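A.,

Following up on our hallway conversation. Structure tokens first:
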């Protein structure tokens, strides 16, 4: 991350407590680091605490507070425990980023039950579990920001991704409904729908497919994790206080 990209969005999140799932790498790491650079204390969640070491060290190097918390987002008891611990240790939870997600691609005719189940469990159920747990401290504080990382696949579909598209369309429906349920307590709930962003998830597609993808993107490049982190920062900021139930697409014009 260069100095230049660090400063693209300037917002003050001092005093805010944030939690980011899937923070060990990719978009989750960029989001966690950006929130911390804006002054938030950040609870970094991933399956293994060890995998979070680099994210936590990057945040600590900026002088901000971060902690690594091991949690499988599909484990409801652990999710409730993690949210309770953050709220107790740091005095609340104001910003939740539901980012953990996986792909298990296959055309629908060949899709295995376990491919379907794993993707729905992590991408959709995990988002529900953390949203439910975080709603309590946010409603109590009468302020909160929930930002769910969806995908353009959930808006337009994508061959080979019936499970993934369904999970992300589900995340968008969940976002719109919870936005209406929590609005009366000043908790906003929005989704960010990235297009193709350069992370390990997209690297797995291989260079040939990625070159074809680049040709379809009007801006002519894959996104950078910071492009998504900046959209999240905006939605987490005071400036986005009147925006709720929306999907902000960050895709270089792919769905325009
Ligand atoms: P990534 O590089 O694969 O990182 C995902 C992170 O989530 C990993 O650290 C992974 O941990 C963690 N994770 C997986 N299962 C988990 C679970 N059960 N509990 C807790 N953490 C878990 O993915 P990414 O590209 O950064 O994507 C992040 C989010 O953006 C996902 O929701 C993805 O669907 C969405 N998205 C990405 C793109 C893109 O182009 N990259 C586009 C649209 C949407 P392990 O490594 O230990 O499994």
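Then the amino acids I'd put at each of the 256 positions:
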């Amino acid at each position: 991350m260069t100095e230049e990209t660090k400063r693209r969005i300037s917002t003050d999140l001092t005093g805010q407590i944030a939690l980011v799932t899937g923070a060990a790498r990719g978009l989750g790491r960029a989001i966690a680091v950006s929130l911390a650079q804006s002054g938030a204390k950040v609870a970094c969640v991933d399956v293994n605490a060890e995998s979070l070491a680099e994210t936590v060290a990057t945040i600590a190097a900026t002088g901000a507070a971060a902690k690594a918390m091991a949690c499988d987002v599909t484990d409801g008891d652990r999710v409730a425990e993690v949210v309770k611990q953050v709220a107790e240790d740091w005095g609340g939870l104001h910003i939740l980023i539901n980012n953990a997600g996986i792909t298990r691609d296959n055309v629908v005719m060949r899709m295995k039950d376990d491919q379907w189940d794993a993707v729905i469990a992590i991408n959709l159920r995990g988002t529900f579990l953390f949203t439910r747990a975080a709603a309590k401290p946010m409603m109590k504080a009468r302020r909160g920001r929930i930002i769910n990382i969806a995908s353009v696949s959930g808006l337009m579909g994508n061959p080979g991704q019936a499970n993934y598209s369904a999970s992300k369309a589900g995340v968008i429906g969940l976002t719109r409904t919870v936005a209406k349920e929590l609005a009366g307590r000043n908790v906003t709930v929005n989704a960010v729908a990235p297009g193709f962003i350069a992370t390990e998830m997209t690297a797995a597609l291989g260079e040939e497919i990625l070159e074809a993808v680049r040709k379809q993107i009007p801006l002519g490049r894959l996104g950078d994790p910071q492009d998504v982190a900046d959209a999240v920062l905006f939605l987490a900021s005071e400036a986005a206080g009147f925006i709720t139930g929306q999907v902000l697409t960050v895709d270089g014009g792919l769905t325009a």
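The mean pLDDT is 96. Curious whether your intuition agrees with the design.

B.
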